[in-house]
Amino acid sequence: MWEQITANQVKSGFLVGFFVLFVIFLGWIFGEYTGWGWGGAVFAGVIACVGALTSWYNSDKMVLAISRARPVEHTEYPHLHNTVQGLAIAAGIPEPKLYIIDDTAPNAFATGRDPEHSAIAVTTGLLQKLNRVELEGVIGHEMSHIADRDTLLMTITVILVGTVALVSDWMFRSFIWGRRSRSRESGQAGAIILVVALVLAILSPLIAQVIKLAISRRREFLADANGARLTRYPEGLASALEKISADPEPLEVANKATAHLYIENPLKDEKRAMNKLFSTHPPVEERIAILRSM
């Protein structure tokens, strides 16, 4: 269990660090091509910071609204409140707000900028189809996302993806408009910059998306391991994942923008069609096998 936690933390840190360096490099290439120099990297950083600050305060409200989640009264699902309260104490964080999504597909997600402003949303299908220990496993997984600040991390990652898409689009448009730059007037080095800029303008959005999905998959592994640490019963989450993944019903309110938040990919048809590289979640069979090896 502890080996899984440590390994996933290291790999997550590497992916996030690489992503930040990639954004800085793209900004520098943009600056060299347009004649802005390091101003391009600074410009990309400013865009990312402004987007991150905006999402910091609004992302949780937007996700809950998109998912049609409603607040849960304490008298409505007392066993759910008891489970969340107990695991919040175990995790050492404030009790998250609880929301319900009225949908028979079993699934759940966590959101919020920090443990003090967090929320967990579960579907009615999850409450109907899982037993007590399976529900505890799912809540433990989502509680781990909150305690590890994964919700904030993924918000920042999405902002970085948007920054890459924006900068690459501007760079591509500069090719179309035929904007002159100092890179075009500096001989062989300028030619290299030109080629690299063109390649990045085309491929960087795809590269950014692949990195984002890799971070998302790695954080799912980490939340599985930390969730097992909280409940001290990995089989509960393993059994829950089996039931959730085997359920054929897609979650109606989910979409490509929110799919990575859920404990298991809610877009059932798309999950079968996508390969491992472009999946928002690790293969459920791999997650279950790791949990049962703990």
Q: Can you give a write-up of this model?
A:
The chain is α+β, with helices and mostly antiparallel strands. The protein has one domain. The protein has ten helices and four strands; from the N terminus they run ααβαβββααααααα. The chain has helices at 2-34, 39-66, 78-91, 124-129, 132-147, 150-177, 187-231, 234-246, 268-273, 284-293; strands at 69-71, 97-101, 108-112, 118-123. It has a four-stranded mixed sheet, with helices on both faces. α2 crosses α6, α7 (187-231) crosses α8 and α8 packs antiparallel against α10 (284-293). The radius of gyration is 21 Å and the shape is elongated.
Number of helices: 10
Strand order of the largest sheet: 1-2-4-3
Task: Tell me the Rg in angstroms.
Answer: 21 Å
Uncertain segments: none
Strand content: 5-15%
Give the helix proportion (percent range). 55-70%
For the terminal residues, how far apart are their CA atoms?
6 Å
| Main beta sheet strand tally, sense and closure | 4 strands, mixed
- Name the shape in a single word: elongated
Number of separate domains: 1
Report the strand count: 4
